[in-house]
Structures are given as structure tokens and as C-alpha cells.
Design a protein that fits this description.
This protein is α+β, with helices and mostly antiparallel strands. The protein is built from one helix and three strands.
Length: about 90
């Protein structure tokens, strides 16, 4: 009987990503897109690999203005998700 294969477990980190690319003309699009790659490559050190880009809604609570009917305001933020194998191997 063969030994069970180890299960790979990952740890993750999230890094804020730009909300949008700003360009003045279509000629600038390749440079703007390359800036995304530069941000990703900067974080891909120490065995971190790019995993995905996700959006998250952050609700800002109104604080004392809630007594006047203010509600939480949600803002959408982009984040890059990176992962790397954990150093401990579990069976």
C-alpha cells in the first residue's frame, strides 16, 4: 500500500489594488496595464504567487450621525490575492 500524498495547504495575503486605470488616450493603455503587472511582480517574492484579483465592499459606519438616520456607506475596493504553500506539510 502506498503512502498518502501530502495535502498542500496555503497561506494567503491580500494587497490593495488600484480601483481603476486612468489614461488620457488609448495609446497609454499598454503602459497602464503594465503598471498592474509591476504591482503583482513586486509582491511575488519569497514564494508568493498571484492567485486572483477580488473585490470587497467596505462599509463605513456613520458613527454619531446614526441618530439622524445616517447609514453605513459601502465602497468597493479591489485587492490582489497571493498565496504560497505553508512550510508545514500535513497528511
Amino acid at each position: 500500500m502506498s503512502a498518502p500524498l501530502p495535502t498542500v495547504r496555503y497561506e494567503y495575503k491580500c494587497v490593495a489594488a488600484p480601483a481603476a486605470l486612468q489614461v488620457k488616450s488609448a495609446k497609454e493603455v499598454p503602459t497602464a496595464v503594465a503598471s498592474y503587472a509591476a504591482l503583482i511582480n513586486k509582491e511575488c517574492q519569497d514564494r508568493w504567487e498571484f492567485y486572483s484579483m477580488e473585490q470587497i465592499v467596505v462599509n463605513e459606519l456613520p458613527g454619531c450621525l446614526a441618530i439622524f438616520g445616517a447609514r453605513a456607506e459601502g465602497t468597493i475596493h479591489n485587492m490582489f490575492v497571493f498565496r504560497r504553500p505553508q512550510t508545514k506539510v500535513t497528511l
